[in-house]
Design goal:
The protein is mainly beta. The protein contains two helices and 20 strands. 5% of the residues lie in helices and 60% in strands.
């Protein structure tokens, strides 16, 4: 392996780790991230984002697919594969209350994910990576009138991210059936602040701070089976299961009363050590997928996933629940429905570059893992994408566009209309060769 190749890999690893470390405060901005561990991350790469995040049953040897651990072994046995993605999201917020519609906007940039896969033995492959798990980012105020205190201003703000460092093994049997297992370490810090200010001088300002330093260990298992249908068609079935995991770490809170009503005001605080017995958990998830492939030219995929958060304990735990945001949050069941398509005119064409481009499109519908005031929060969107070949082998540049909306589709709650663009680099190189000379 050339020394220059090692240098490139080391530079990508260092840049990915540095970018993740710096992207926490810019990763997300949404009033709904006030609850629990924030907004759960979407597709880890631009490649799968173009097909609405489908990939549980996809068996494509040209790209690295970590949605299903079993898919990683569907590859060239000598290939080193790398996937690195970034994204930028522009969001327009709107809310109609009391006959008045208010608007706001935000722009956020973050790392979509980094993964590297390598052969181990025969038809077994390994992989490691880093990707976002969830993000918190919000700042909003609510004003109300009180007969005694006058105007009461309540300001909420929060920042932080959780990340998932993972690694796994995958084995392919007879090029039709593959299995995989993955170990996941989730870690990060979330900070939340609530300030209540009174117009009347007879009341003190109240401040609440929560700092959640969290970590969790979990695992993911996957399987895929490919069934030939005649000469031109192949049908692939896939399944994944992520284990439920207990949150560990520290939950620190402080309560302050600031003002001149009393001569001395003392802060109150708490410090909880989160353990398995605390009853706060990240939900497990079941994923099912089906993919129909026509001559490696046309691919159609459908994925369904379900995770039950109702017993996570977050809707009643300090720092996770929302008790002063004018709306009540409760855990619910998260479900996702995704449909994606890929079309490659001719992957082997040597005359026309555009015929080697992979064109993608998709649509999705999600129920978030919480309800607000008893109402479900839904996400719906359309995606478009393309992968542009670069140099030899399967090196390429992937671009994906996601246009969607989150929030109840009617009523006075906030609706988010977003435009997200993802850019990813897919590197493919043949390693571990033993040249022969006559």
């Amino acid at each position: 392996m050339p020394r220059r190749t090692y240098s490139v890999i080391a530079a990508l690893l260092l840049s990915a780790v540095g970018a993740f470390a710096q992207s926490g405060e810019y990763g997300s901005y949404s009033p709904y991230s006030i609850f629990g561990v924030g907004n759960l991350a979407g597709s880890p790469s631009a490649y799968v984002s173009g097909m609405a995040g489908t990939g549980i049953a996809s068996r494509n040897h040209r790209y690295l697919n970590t949605l299903n651990p079993a898919a990683v072994s569907v590859r060239d046995s000598l290939a080193l594969m790398i996937d690195f993605s970034v994204f930028n999201t522009n969001t327009l917020y709107s809310q109609t209350y009391g006959g008045v519609t208010r608007h706001s906007a935000n722009n956020a940039t973050n790392i979509g994910g980094f993964a590297i896969s390598f052969p181990i033995w025969n038809k077994m492959a390994g992989y490691v990576g880093l990707r976002p798990y969830s993000s918190v980012g919000y700042t909003f105020s609510v004003n109300s009138a009180d007969a005694d205190a006058g105007v009461v201003s309540q300001t909420h703000s929060g920042i932080g991210s959780l990340y998932n460092f993972y690694g796994g093994l995958s084995h392919n049997f007879a090029n039709r059936f593959s299995i995989g297992a993955e170990a996941d370490y989730i870690f990060g810090k979330l900070e939340k602040q609530f300030v209540q200010d009174f117009a009347s001088s007879g009341y003190n300002e109240a401040q609440t701070y929560h700092t959640l330093t969290l970590n969790a260990f979990t695992g993911k298992f996957g399987a895929q089976y490919e069934l030939p249908l005649g000469k031109d068609y192949k049908l692939s079935l896939g399944a994944t299961y992520t284990l439920r995991s207990w949150l560990h770490g520290f939950n620190d809170g402080q309560y302050y009363s600031a003002g001149s009503v009393q001569n001395a005001t003392l802060p109150e605080s708490y410090a909880d050590t989160l353990r398995g017995a605390s009853g706060i958990a990240l939900a497990g998830e079941l994923g099912l997928g089906i993919t129909l492939n026509f001559r490696n030219k046309l691919r159609a995929s459908f994925d369904y996933s379900r995770s039950d958060w109702r017993n996570s304990g977050m809707d009643s735990a300090k720092g996770f629940e929302v008790s002063d945001a004018q709306q009540s949050f409760e855990n619910s069941v998260k479900e996702s429905y995704k449909l994606g398509f890929e079309y490659v005119p001719n992957i082997s064409d040597v005359r026309y570059y555009h015929k080697r481009i992979a064109y993608r499109a998709g649509a999705y519908f999600n129920n978030e893992y919480y309800t607000v005031a008893g109402r479900p929060v839904n996400t719906v969107g359309l995606t478009l994408g393309a992968t542009l070949p670069v140099f030899r082998w399967y090196n390429c540049l992937s671009i994906a566009v996601d246009i969607g909306q989150r929030g109840p589709f009617s009523g006075s709650l906030v609706r988010e209309n977003y435009f997200k663009i993802s850019v990813g680099v897919n590197l493919f190189d043949i390693w571990f060769q033993q040249p022969r000379y006559d």
